[in-house]
Design a protein that fits this description.
Number of strands: 2
Oligomer: single chain
Largest sheet: 2 strands, antiparallel
Strand order of the largest sheet: 1-2
Length: 266
């Protein structure tokens, strides 16, 4: 047994197995949110309103409206609304699956490549152990809950389009914007100085949160409501995907190290 293998075996008692398929699937689920940008572009291309759709003035939810005609003073007609609503649902499911599969211990340490991770439990992490409720563990857990909540919100948006007359559409949108921004702020802070992408994730959270506050203060009565809404939503999609990339890279790195270790041991 090599020194590296012996070290890995010793530390295998203390950390989760970051190379597990579960974590790779969770990372890919988060990366899947990028499909939203492709779907939105396709739906905008199919727009059939009296005026061309503009990302600057048009609301995102207009793309998922079921009918054609006047809605809240806007001429809305989105023939590809099924694609847009399906994209909302897929995006939300990706976020929820990622939150479910990426455990708190993994999120806490995934951006720290100097720490080998293997199957097991850290010492002193029993049910009532203080270590179980350390700031890092709490932050990682909060990021998971918030990401799952944001995902549930956009699933609601997809199932309840804006012109159904249900208040659940607004509730779902607020869940997505608010919980999504907070999730990125927490995760970006947790990974600060551990990965260059932490600054991107943190910046995405800050931009989204600031835009959400601006939208709340102004009631979205601004010159470019579409721009403001996209400043709320686009950074969340980009930040979640960046988080998935961090985890996916760590999983691939651990798998490569283990493959190399097995090859040397032969």
């Amino acid at each position: 047994m090599t020194a590296g293998t012996a070290k890995l075996s010793a530390e295998a008692l203390y950390y989760p197995d970051v190379a597990a398929t579960r974590f790779y699937a969770g990372a890919l689920a988060k990366l899947s949110v990028l499909q939203y940008f492709v779907a939105e572009a396709a739906v905008i291309g199919a727009w059939d309103g009296t005026e061309p759709y503009s990302r600057r003035t048009g609301y995102i939810s207009d793309l998922g409206a079921l009918g054609c005609g006047d809605f809240a003073g806007r001429d809305v007609c989105s023939p590809a609304h099924l694609l847009m609503n399906a994209s909302f649902v897929v995006q939300g499911i990706g976020m929820m699956v990622g939150a479910l599969l990426l455990g708190s211990a993994l999120l806490r340490l995934a951006a720290r490549p100097g720490i080998p991770l293997a199957r097991g439990r850290m010492p002193g992490t029993g049910k009532w152990s203080p270590a179980r409720w350390s700031p890092g563990v709490v932050a990682a857990g909060a990021a998971r809950v918030l990401t799952g909540t944001a995902g549930a919100g956009t699933v609601i948006v997809g199932f309840v389009p804006e012109d159904t007359g249900s208040a659940w559409h607004v509730v779902g949108a607020v869940m997505y914007f608010a919980a999504g921004a907070l999730a990125l702020l927490v995760l970006g802070g947790l990974w600060l100085r551990q990965t260059p992408l932490s600054w991107l994730i943190l910046s995405c959270g800050l931009v989204s949160a600031a835009a959400l506050v601006a939208g709340g203060v102004t009631g979205m009565h601004v010159a470019e409501p579409g721009t403001l809404e996209r400043l709320m939503g686009y950074p969340i999609t980009a930040g979640v995907a960046a988080a998935g990339l961090v985890v996916a890279q760590r999983v691939q790195r651990e798998r490569a190290l283990r493959t190399a270790a097995r090859a040397r041991a032969r």
